[in-house]
TrEMBL record:
GO terms for molecular function: aminoacyl-tRNA deacylase activity; ATP binding; leucine-tRNA ligase activity. Belongs to the class-I aminoacyl-tRNA synthetase family. InterPro entries: aa-tRNA-synth_I_CS (IPR001412), aa-tRNA-synth_Ia (IPR002300), Leu-tRNA-ligase (IPR002302), Leu_tRNA-synth_edit (IPR025709), M/V/L/I-tRNA-synth_anticd-bd (IPR013155), Rossmann-like_a/b/a_fold (IPR014729), tRNAsynth_Ia_anticodon-bd (IPR009080), Val/Leu/Ile-tRNA-synth_edit (IPR009008). One of its GO terms (biological process) is leucyl-tRNA aminoacylation. Residues 288-474 form the Leucyl-tRNA synthetase editing domain. The keyword Ribonucleoprotein does not apply. ATP binds at residue 731. CDD domains: Anticodon_Ia_Leu_BEm. Residues 11-155, 723-754 form the Aminoacyl-tRNA synthetase class Ia domain. This is Leucine--tRNA ligase. It comes from Flavobacterium xinjiangense. Residues 804-916 form the Methionyl/Valyl/Leucyl/Isoleucyl-tRNA synthetase anticodon-binding domain. It is an enzyme of class 6 (ligase). Keywords: Aminoacyl-tRNA synthetase, ATP-binding, Cytoplasm, Ligase, Nucleotide-binding, Protein biosynthesis.
Amino acid sequence: MKYNPNEIEAKWQKYWLENQTFKAENNSTKPKYYVLDMFPYPSGAGLHVGHPLGYIASDVYSRYKRHQGFNVLHPMGYDSFGLPAEQYAIQTGQRPEDTTSVNIDGGTDKEGNKIAGYRKQLDKIGFSFDWSREVRTSNPDYYKHTQWIFIQLFNSWYNKNSDKAEDISTLVSIFSTEGNVSVNAVCDENIEAFSANEWNAFAKEQQERILLQYRLTYLAETEVNWCPGLGTVLANDEIVNGVSERGGFTVVRKKMTQWSMRISAYAERLLQGLNDIDWSESIKESQRNWIGKSVGATVEFNVQNSNFKLAVFTTRPDTIFGVTFMTLAPEHELVSQITTAEQKAEVEAYIEKTSKRSERERMADVKTISGVFTGAYAEHPFTKEPIPVWIGDYVLAGYGTGAVMAVPCGDERDYAFANFFKGQQGMSAIKNIFDKDISEAAFGAKEGFQLVDSDFLNGLDYKKGTQKVIEELEKLNQGKGKTNYRLRDAVFSRQRYWGEPFPVYYVNGLPQMIDTQHLPIILPEVEKYLPTEDGLPPLGNALVWAWDTETNQVVNTDLVDNKTIYPLELNTMPGWAGSSWYWMRYMDAHNEKEFASKDALAYWESVDLYIGGSEHATGHLLYSRFWNKFLKDKGFAPTEEPFKKLINQGMILGMSAFVYRLDGTNTYVSKNKIDGQKVQPIHVDVSMINSSDELDIERFKSWREDYADADFITEENGKYIVGREVEKMSKSKYNVVTPDDICNEYGADTLRLYEMFLGPLEQAKPWNTAGISGVFGFLKKLCRLYFDDNSLIVTNDAPTKDNLKSLHKTIKKVAEDIEGFSFNTSVSQFMICVNELSTQNCHCRAILEPLAIVISPYAPHIAEELWSLLGNTGSIATVDFPVFEAKYLVESEKEYPVSFNGKMRFTMVLPLDLTKEQIEEIVMKDERTIKQLEGRTPNKVIIVPGKIINLVG
């Protein structure tokens, strides 16, 4: 018998599929455990060896929990809506639903490219997914529930008194009986007060406009990241260095009417909830910073010679007498209205320039100082002195009020700004209000000072000064204490085709929700996926995209009469819509009536272990917590938090290869022959490089047309040596290694073990295919404990103490490692154990049967095969994990080094329970001792039981 991984793995993958070995039950008497991976976006590039790292780790854990007797839910699906598929469709003239399907299921695309398909790739690695619960966010039977959740958000408001979302009907009830003066809600700013009588007298359209100011999802004119090249709005995390991550197109800030989600209502709960979940501190800190809670005050400054007021939020109201200028965000709505004629051209040019920088870029850039004086002056609320008003891109429109009162003596950015524009018109001298020196830098501490030159605040500290100034501002009706959050409402509209359609039609410009019984509203066919000629989103190209309120159907667009047939929303939902609740759909994936039944939700509750990338810290992980809390408020989700424990896997890096082209030529110099010559490094496909870093020159020349007549300066032996560098694994760097190739050559079990063996799960580590042969050799050595070239060689012999010690060391170590997510050290322990058992010539069933179970979470295919060869029926997957017995690790004997005058001469094995006297008696009678002493009597015999024996003199 020989170890044939391809044959073994195909056999057991077929068995698992046919027997639904990993199907989880919703009504099990076993305790539940829910393990979830961040589901993939199915691109045509497929998986490379870096992608399965987290999946393998979660699979090891899932299998281990099954061995422990848990009913494990370990599902998989696809985050299949999104911009990449749409852009690919535009480029190739294919339908995104077709390319998405091929990318998942495999096949040949329109261009003749053979696509392996994510499902086949995942199956090949042997994951214990419950495929009966697969979801695809682009399937109508999935996104009908995303549409339903959107409607629930639209029909809800956030009651600060109850600190939760409530049905909009309760707000309407308050309005109709009390008006809105006593309503304590999260809502738009500057809402006008009205009485119950006024509300009841309002026309229906007016009431709807008012309710939009309170709803948890609402239409508003919002500053967005607009990408003309892609024809859509982008999220901050889709922008890199001021351009779109996809395509590298310019991104500008502009105002558009968009759907938004009032995530800001949940800011405090999102902050406090971090205390209750087992996540890394780095991820928690990222979310804390993104939420950005700050306690301070709002202050109103009157703009001189106008009726305008500038509201600012400050965390340091105690420094109000140190204000020497004000700075507005370039996008602030009052900029155009207060800028003087003399400054207009300069201000407009600056606004145009800064519109090309993303908010993230502006926040991160603390070195660049830029700004323009508007020519306007505000009035200090207490001294009535004029304060020059500037604009600067270090102030963001969406944070606070989009304006700051600049106190250079107490803030580093204000200090740098004031010094940069020192002496210019509109920049006052820095005023020091602290009893500290600020000649070199601002004094930003909140303690260790007394206020000076601050009128009624003189002599006070931060705490007393803050309290006093808020009292005085309230007397003037020009400010009050306030808690502020950096977290802003999330823009929820995208000018794309390939996304969830909104279940919304418009009557007189006001949004109306389609009744939930008519969902899903299915994405229509369009001829092209670009915006229309007049700038409408791609759905503006749809010929059948209007809502008939009588038949409750989508009908031809040209039938719109705004009487019974109305236009449908042309935007689609963003990529994070479907991923903000998908873990709950897995709980009850085939429920047609609701996103999941109450029973299923009550049983599974929340995800016990979530594994995915840290890049989602302030995107998906924040939005999903928000939706979960909302659904909890409305009585649908059973828990406040969706993910109990989160593990972020590190990145597997590729080992890139480079050839070196002499500048201005088509000649390539071997790495060791460059010798100061000016060369350009060029990425080359790693498949052309052997384990000695030698380039296959003929393959390189036939790789691309422009390389066909290339010349090579080689080493003396005629070899061309490439350069190597560790980089992110990427198709563009030609350093991608596919798991399919590894599985075909070495088997999936080798791939699984090797990826776990590379290093700690949460750290980045380079891939080196050369190291995989050692793991393959280990599996062959494991097999030789069970069978030789002819047959099974397992015996029923009683195990020795050494056999049992090797086994139980491994049981203990592996169980501890899996619980602690230290998977790499488990693989090391397997290798140690197999080496020890091989040396011991162990072929005992009592050892090898439990060993197969212990290794099965990591190498499930060979474990199943060995389990079967041992005569067992059924799968090894749910067999109880072996119990560690400490008694087998208790040492009963000790091999003592016996030394004479400090030099070890021989060893002897003695029982550990002997006394000093008994040990001395045995040693002195030993023939080797007698020979060493040559008739002498030692002056001293030093014995430390369990450690040393030393005869002196």
